[in-house]
Amino acid sequence: MASKEESRLINLILSNGARFYVDHAHPEYSSPETTNPRDLVIWDRAGERILNLARSRAEAVSPPEQRILIYKNNTDSKGNSYGTHENYLMDRKVPFARIVQHLMPFFVSRQVFTGAGKVGAENNTEHCDYQISQRADFLETEVGLETMHSRPIINTRDEPHADPERYRRLHVIVGDANMSEVSNYLKVGTMAIALSMIEDDFIEGDLSLESPVLAYRKVSRDLTCRETFRLKDGRALTAVDLQREYLALARKYYVGREHEPWVDDVMLRWGTVLDQLAKDPMSLDRELDWVIKQALIQSYMAKHGLEWSDSRVAMIDLQYHDIRPGKGLYYKLEESDAVERLTTEDEVTKAIYDPPKDTRAYFRGMCLQKYADEVVSASWDSVIFDLKEGPLKKIFMLEPLRGTEAHVRQLFAESPTAGDLLRNLGKPAGDV
Fold first, then answer.
1. Catalytic site residue 44?
2. 83 CB neighbour count, 10 Å cutoff
3. How many Cβ atoms are within 10 Å of 110's Cβ, its own excluded?
4. Rounded Cα gap, residues 239 and 219, in angstroms
5. Is the confidence at residue 10, as pLDDT, over 90?
6. DSSP 74
7. Which helix (H) or strand (E) holds 421?
8. Helices 289-304 and 311-319, interaxial angle, to 10°?
9. Any residues with CB less than 8 A from the CB of 65 and at least 6 apart, and which?
10. Above 50 in pLDDT, residue 5?
11. Which helix (H) or strand (E) holds 230?
């Protein structure tokens, strides 16, 4: 059994509000709560830097001949897949059947801009040289609780890490691990828009597919983005057509409705990307992971006269996801300005240490920055202090949008110690 010290080493809440732990023998980073897609991209990129710091420090105390490599991808190409999980808080009152109905077609079709690209097929699926998504071959059912086998397109796990009366946590396991900031931004931005429409019961039509699992794999293998699949109402649409249906709904939904500025930016980029995919997917070789990677591989194959089956091609596929700056192929493209960035290096560096300011992650992160010696445990919805006298003190954080900088800046300024913080909260254990 691991000692208390070892347990602390493998399950940490970081000063930027994120969680860093070991899951099934590989490192896992869960970014802190964010309110908009650009912040998500920033704190996700910060996770890559944190993983690389951990990697280099572990390597420094390992035998000299031992190298540690970390890849931000979804498959080891030996039949094993691991997820890149997205988590969204939703209104508890929304019927789950409505979520399933409207998200199933959305997930099947969104691969055209979220896919990270993959050489070959796995999991006893139909052969292909290259496909759009790394997860497609591993999705086997439509709806279910599992994440390790019989993987569903829509996962039913629901631990809100917040007030369960008010919130459901939608746990999304179908997404690819994105190196591209544009793919990542669109993945979560379009999803947030789709969920807003679902929560408000705005989507009247039914875009349900005849065979979602088969359609998922078909979309992944269609590098032209022009093949159609059948809807239950008899229509035959491409993935781009289907995404355009959601975009058209979103444009209608936001007319006259108050919304954040990022919504307009996501919708504009969503529309532009769909138009380019319809004309020529390869024109997106600065924006989308699967296109960037395909162009990179094909250029290398042409230069060296290689087939798709060559082991060097598989190696490029893997090295694209290497999170070592200066070594990973995506990072090399970024260094030479061959791919589009949405964030700045300063923002990402700051996010390694500091939490977002507009969610409860701010309170969690600042507690760790100011009172690290007194914090014995922290989770998404609580922080536990040991003041070395009396019982442990627990502060609950059940509301994700409380504990923000605006909400608690003054509280921290007036609380030099953890004891002061607890006294200023007005009771030995309370809610933020």
1. no
2. 20
3. 25
4. 7
5. no
6. S
7. helix 418-424
8. 150
9. none
10. no
11. strand 229-230
Three-class DSSP category at 241: helix
Give residue for tokens 């992160």. Answer: 365
Closest-CA residue to 366 (of 407, 405, 402):
405
**Cβ atoms 273, 288 nearer than 8 A:** yes
Helix (H) or strand (E) holding 155: strand 152-155
pLDDT tens digits, residue range 117-153?
Answer: 999 999 999 999 999 999 999 999 999 878 677 889 9
Number of neighbours of residue 205 by Cβ within 10 angstroms: 9
Secondary structure letter of residue 32 according to DSSP: P
Provide the mean pLDDT of the chain. 94
Neighbours of 286 (CB within 10 A): 16
Percent of the chain with pLDDT over 90: 89
* Cα 62 from Cα 56, distance rounded (Å): 10
Spatial separation of the C-alpha atoms in residues 387 and 245, rounded to whole Å: 56
Among residues 23, 206, 233, 275, the one annotated as catalytic is 23
DSSP, collapsed to helix, strand or coil, labels residue 375 as: strand
Give φ, ψ of 318 to 5 degrees. -70, -45
3-class secondary structure, 170: strand
CA 177 from chain centre, in angstroms, equals: 7
Phi and psi at residue 421, to the nearest 5°: -60, -50
Q: Do the Cβ atoms of 102 and 156 come closer than 8 Å?
A: no
Place of tokens 């507690």: 367
234 Cβ neighbours under 8 A, 6+ residues apart: none
Q: Give me the helices (H) in 12-133, please.
A: 37-60, 96-114
| pLDDT (tens digit per residue) in 372-426 | 999 999 999 999 999 999 999 999 999 999 999 999 999 999 999 999 999 999 7
Q: Nearest Cα to 112, choosing from 205, 208, 242?
A: 242
Do 27 and 54 contact (CB within 8 A), yes or no?
yes
| Alpha-carbon dihedral sign for residues 378, 383, 386, 390 | negative
Residue 166, C-beta contacts closer than 8 angstroms, at least 6 positions apart? 91, 92
Residue 23's pLDDT is: 78
By the 10 Å C-beta count (0-12 exposed, 13-18 middle, 19+ buried), 69 is classed as: middle
DSSP per-residue string spanning 384-420 = EE--SSSS-EEEE---TTSS-HHHHHHHHHT-SSHHH
**The pair of three-digit structure tokens given for residue 417, joined into one six-digit string:** 């110690």
